[in-house]
Structures are given as structure tokens and as C-alpha cells.
């Protein structure tokens, strides 16, 4: 049996942002849905163990009114866990829109080997190749280190599952809201971008959840920069429970400047490269 079609849906205009394409939070939301549908289709009585991380690459823009389908399959399983992959396609043209790789801590393939396929090489990370560190850091430590706050808010009901636990959209929506504040830290303000007909776009993300947020929890994001290249840079968003100070999740994101006319990326200006170096939390890649 090949990969299963786990989602067949549509891009609503209200899912699109200032770039006139589907916002990153809705890719994660649709991948969340696809994972649940996949487990139901193969007859898993219970959900897989809590997912350790989800890695997403954005390959092509999706615009309002386009049709979307997701194909899902197991990739591999060993003593350390299970890997599930999702391939998101725009159905009219067949073009690849996005890929996701889910990593679970428990072994689950077993009798489901008929829905196992090789890892699609297009899903493999290109810019987030490092291991995640500082997973036990606290809000107080980041505050003392001077990591700036880029978002605060409350987990909403529409971003939670039936058990009140935050879905991926809860984390990625606050990351999306924080992005403009993070870009402004290095001089790439909305005004600077708007004057040139440019926008902000993510091309790759990795979400790792440690202590899930729940409905009504108050969160805080603090941002650092982890890499800079000629046409992209990578950031780390530490997502804390504001009440407890605990690190709930980390989102790492690679971003580019999007030219709204050509729909192509633009070079990161020198002043931004210098600011990223000054604010970086790790070795810079040039």
C-alpha cells in the first residue's frame, strides 16, 4: 500500500497573510490534522506517543483558492522511535508545496509496514542541521542573558485539541506574530521592507515541544539569532510559560526576504548581517 491521502482541503483567503499566501501556522495545522487522520486510517487504537519534534520545509507558495492534498506514510522505526512523513501538494498542478517529518519517541510501525516508504529527500533539512541545545533553559536565564521579548499572549481555544492541549498552530501562530518584531531587531522593519515591495517569508522550521501549553496558559517568546547567510538567516524562538517560567517549546526558523513582484528572494543587506552577528547566540554561518 502506498502513502495514504490523509487530507484533502482548500486554502481559504482568511488563511493568507500580508504576502498574499497561506500563513505558516496553517501548514502546521494541516500537518497536525493529517497525522491524526493517518493514525485513524491505519487503525491505531490510541494516538502515537507525544511527538518530540516536527520539521517542515516550505517549497512553494500556496495562494487563496488553491486545492491541497497531503500524502502521509511511516518512514522508519527503530528502538528509539517512529518517523512519519507528510507530503503536501497543490492538486491542480501537482507541485510540491511543503513537507513535514514527525519524530515520535515510541516504536509503532510493526504491522503497518505496508504504509512505509523511503524518506523523501526533498523533506530533508537544508539549513537547520544542528542539534538542539539548552532545552532545559528557564525564562529567568534568558532574561538575564538579554534575549529580547518578541511576543506575549494567551493560548486560545481554537488552537487547542479536545483535551485542551495546544496544537502546533498555537506555537506557530505566536511565532508568526513575533516575526516582525524579530526582524525589526536587525533593522528589517516593516517600513524598510514596504518601501521596497518586500516581505518576510519562512522557508524551513523545526518545532520541538517539551511541556505542552494548554488552553488559557500565558506564554512569552524570546528570540535569538543562530545563523546568517547571503540570502537567509535563522532564528530561535524560546516559548515559555510566563507563570511557571518553564521552557515549553522551541521553534527554529529560517527566513528570507521575499520580493512581492518577482516572488523571489533578495539578498540580506549588510547592515542586517552585522546586526545578526551582534545578536547571535551561536557561531554564524556565512
Automatic annotation (TrEMBL):
It comes from the Bacteria. Pfam families: 4HBT_2. It comes from Cohaesibacter gelatinilyticus. This is Acyl-CoA thioester hydrolase. InterPro entries: 4-hydroxybenzoyl-CoA_TE, HotDog_dom_sf. SUPFAM superfamilies: Thioesterase/thiol ester dehydrase-isomerase. The lineage of its organism: Bacteria, Pseudomonadati, Pseudomonadota, Alphaproteobacteria, Hyphomicrobiales. Belongs to the 4-hydroxybenzoyl-CoA thioesterase family. Signal peptide: none annotated.
Amino acid at each position: 500500500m502506498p502513502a495514504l491521502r490523509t487530507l484533502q482541503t482548500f486554502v481559504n483567503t482568511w488563511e493568507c497573510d500580508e504576502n498574499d499566501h497561506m500563513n505558516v501556522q496553517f501548514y502546521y495545522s494541516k500537518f497536525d490534522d493529517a497525522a491524526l487522520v493517518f493514525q485513524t486510517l491505519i487503525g491505531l487504537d490510541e494516538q502515537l506517543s507525544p511527538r518530540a519534534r516536527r520539521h517542515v520545509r516550505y517549497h512553494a507558495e500556496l495562494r487563496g483558492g488553491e486545492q491541497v492534498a497531503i500524502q502521509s506514510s511511516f518512514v522508519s522505526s527503530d528502538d528509539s522511535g517512529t518517523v512519519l512523513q507528510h507530503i503536501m501538494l497543490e492538486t491542480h498542478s501537482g507541485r510540491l508545496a511543503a513537507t513535514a517529518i514527525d519524530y515520535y519517541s515510541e516504536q509503532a510501525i510493526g504491522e503497518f509496514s505496508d504504509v512505509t516508504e523511503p524518506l523523501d529527500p526533498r523533506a530533508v533539512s537544508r539549513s537547520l542541521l544542528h542539534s538542539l541545545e539548552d532545552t532545559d533553559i528557564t525564562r529567568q536565564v534568558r532574561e538575564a542573558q538579554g534575549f529580547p521579548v518578541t511576543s506575549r499572549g494567551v493560548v486560545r481555544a481554537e488552537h487547542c485539541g479536545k483535551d485542551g492541549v495546544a496544537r502546533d498552530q498555537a506555537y506557530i501562530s505566536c511565532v508568526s506574530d513575533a516575526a516582525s518584531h524579530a526582524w525589526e531587531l536587525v533593522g528589517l522593519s516593516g517600513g524598510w521592507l514596504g518601501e521596497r515591495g518586500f516581505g518576510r517569508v519562512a522557508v524551513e522550521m523545526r518545532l520541538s515541544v517539551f511541556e505542552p501549553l494548554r488552553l488559557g496558559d500565558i506564554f512569552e517568546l524570546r528570540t535569538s539569532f543562530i545563523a546568517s547567510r547571503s540570502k537567509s538567516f535563522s532564528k530561535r524562538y524560546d516559548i515559555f510559560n510566563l507563570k511557571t517560567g518553564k521552557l515549553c517549546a522551541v521553534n527554529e526558523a529560517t527566513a528570507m526576504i521575499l520580493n512581492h513582484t518577482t516572488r523571489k528572494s533578495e539578498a540580506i543587506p549588510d547592515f542586517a548581517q552585522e546586526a545578526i552577528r551582534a545578536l547571535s547566540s551561536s557561531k554564524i554561518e556565512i
